[in-house]
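User: Some background: our group keeps a shared notebook of sequences we're curious about, and every so often someone picks one and asks for a predicted structure to add to the entry. Today it's my turn. The entry only has the sequence so far, pasted here. Could you supply the structure so I can complete it?
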Amino acid sequence: MNKDQITELLQPYLEDDRIFIVEVKIGEGKIRQTITILLDTDEGIKIEECASISRRLAHFIETNELIKDAYNLEVSSPGIDQPLLLKRQYIKNIGRNLKLQLVEGSEKIGALENVTDEGIVFKEEPKKSKGRKVVLLESLSIAFENIKQAKVQISFK
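Assistant: Of course. Here's the predicted structure to add to the notebook entry:
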């Protein structure tokens, strides 16, 4: 099976697009292949929802003998350490702090203020340096195509 086939098989379980696919990965192991499916919702997906989809999808695959060899099926939510991949994930995280790695090589940390069709509006944290006045930075518009990686920053304050 390939990613497109798995994505197609998942469609009936996505509850009219309430649940969305973040990523499908297929890894070939020595003994068996591993199919990893990352799902989410705008409110955050529950473990019970992932388990239910996993059971129903595995049952469908086995009943219809779609995969002949042994395989592992992993259905979960993207962990907080996973990069944001979809516009819908960015929207879900408006107001949170992100760490951005830009295509041109720089890194920025700050608050996600808004999401547009083309990219994000981002307010970079001011850089602190000894003895100098803190300069407040303006909001930046950054196109999705210029973002190499974006991760939510956890705050324990």
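Suggested note for the entry: Residues 3-76 form a domain with the GMP Synthetase; Chain A, domain 3 fold (CATH 3.30.300.70). The helical segments are 3-10, 47-63, 87-92.
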